[in-house]
């Protein structure tokens, strides 16, 4: 019976085998298969191939799928291929099958020319993590870490306070704004016309910062909010510095704190941001699925540490115009290489371009630490990573100069373009 089912499935999917084989072979780090009950759900072209999943055989849910598909075939309920605007779709009667990572990556858009092999997952407690960190920064400029040493209580306490704040009436929240640059903002991102379906709090990471703006809405609880933010930032900053030192080891840089000392400096220009993306109103209809929460950009600082709840929305671009959705993971921290680190490694590490799209049914809350150098710090490729000055891809600049230039640009602009030697010649 199973052989008969496989023969029929093989014939049904034969036109797609080559492309899906390549996709699944490249998806070396994809996570477990899971099956979700969703009646009459159409599967996007990139979501899965039932044949490929069934070939896995050893997975209990794949076997469950085999039985289900076999029964359907015997009942004459084979998947139906549809064609619409060059998008191939498949529908099944009762179940949605998703290859975790693929379905998340393709959930908003049709399959792209570049197939993402999965978010690099790095266990910081393992001895091989140094080389893995370097490779992730070289290949993607983006990865997630586990065994990071940050207790859950600091994460949940801050998230709870953030939820309380963003749940307040808009009139209350606006008392902590407008951002100057710190404070509450909504929809408007920067001063150059960028907007998004987002509200946010931008905070100084200086532990002595005055939280007087919050006194009018938090009252005596403003001090509690300040302490929770400071404790969280302190922990995340420590982790960021440890990652930067492991990267320095991996690059065989003699000065192990060559990167991390810039974050540890008392004059470090680091910031902390809380972003809240409310559910997109249903009146936007189908367009709500692709509404931009935060437009495409790279982070100008050295390193960014992101933690979000279990709502999807984050996307990265590995090639021009191809966007890939990142499955949410509230148990890990996502790390972005920033523009400054790209310059300091002379382009060896990549500053990843990313954005956030809205979710039509659930709120997304993210907390990001942006580790930056002092304003007067000169940013240039480290001498040990280049053969000579002629090999440098970038002109030297101070963080203040780059920050000033970035503030004058739009989010999607190539901010580093003005500082590239080739562009300048």
TrEMBL record:
<dbReference type="Pfam" id="PF14226">
    <property type="entry name" value="DIOX_N"/>
</dbReference>
<keyword id="KW-0560">Oxidoreductase</keyword>
<dbReference type="InterPro" id="IPR044861">
    <property type="entry name" value="IPNS-like_FE2OG_OXY"/>
</dbReference>
<feature type="domain" description="Fe2OG dioxygenase">
    <location>
        <begin position="267"/>
        <end position="373"/>
    </location>
</feature>
<dbReference type="Pfam" id="PF03171">
    <property type="entry name" value="2OG-FeII_Oxy"/>
</dbReference>
<dbReference type="InterPro" id="IPR005123">
    <property type="entry name" value="Oxoglu/Fe-dep_dioxygenase_dom"/>
</dbReference>
<comment type="similarity">
    <text>Belongs to the iron/ascorbate-dependent oxidoreductase family.</text>
</comment>
<keyword id="KW-0408">Iron</keyword>
<dbReference type="InterPro" id="IPR027443">
    <property type="entry name" value="IPNS-like_sf"/>
</dbReference>
<keyword id="KW-0479">Metal-binding</keyword>
<dbReference type="InterPro" id="IPR050231">
    <property type="entry name" value="Iron_ascorbate_oxido_reductase"/>
</dbReference>
<dbReference type="InterPro" id="IPR026992">
    <property type="entry name" value="DIOX_N"/>
</dbReference>
<protein>
    <recommendedName>
        <fullName>Fe2OG dioxygenase domain-containing protein</fullName>
    </recommendedName>
</protein>
